[in-house]
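Ticket #4471: structure export looks truncated?
Reporter: QA, pipeline team
Priority: medium

Steps to reproduce: submit the single chain below to the structure queue and open the exported record.
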Amino acid sequence: MKRAIFVLLLLITCLSKISVSQISTDSILYKPEDKKIVEEKLQLFSKNAALPINELIVEIGKSFLGTPYVSATLENGAEEKLVINLRELDCTTFVENVLALSRAVKSGKSDFYSFVSELQRIRYRNGIRNGYPSRLHYFSEWIRDNQKKGIVDGSPNKNGQKIDKLINFMSTHPADYPVLKAHPELIPLISRQESELSKYDFWYFPKSDFVNLYKNLKHGDIIALTSTIDGVDINHVGIIIKKGTEFYLLHAPLSGKKVLISDGPITDFLKPASKNSGIMIARPIF
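Actual output as written to the record:
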């Protein structure tokens, strides 16, 4: 009986986190500058470890202001090595890196591989990197998976509206994705993942209801701009900054070519003619 309890406790311990020792150096792609940036930011913000994670995320996010926007930095083949690139960011990698840094700081960690472990856990389904399909390509699934892992809270979306949404853009547009174009054998698996994702309720705050959205937004929320495009769940992501009674977006936009804070409020992204249908919230927790 004691042995069974010991084995159970050992199993729980192993499953509860990704061990740094499981991430070999030859499975990571990064440059010395990336390691330096990580270590400098962990050291710099260690004094802010007592801040609530929503405030810490905003402060670390602002430290990236001006960082160049570069897309597709994660594309490195079907094997899917873990890419560490803090020199060039797109909207999703900006959010992921800031969240991973914040969690490492809150954990009292200041070493590179603690950050790497956090990033892998955030970026991949169930925290396990196992080829290209294991990455959380759709941000609505990113929210759902990271809620399951206790990293974000998506429950505020239940105060919004539920719709059915068919997600299938990757499998129906494989030529737009270098890995799928080179490895069409992966498309059926991606299609099955999309089918599973499409079964879940799609909760969001429609752009027609600003009043309800503003009641639910908070400083430091990660938000996703939901899409009107067929087969697509999310168009863009970023971090909310509250100034007075208004909300702005800290993000890495293609249009701005760098990490910046939006000139106008979040409602500027939700104009009637835009392809953004509304907002999903992923509230960081620790």
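Status: closed, not a bug. The export was complete when the record was re-opened. Leaving a note from the reviewer for reference: The beta strands are 28-29, 82-83, 152-153, 161-163, 202-206, 222-227, 234-243, 246-251, 260-261, 276-284.
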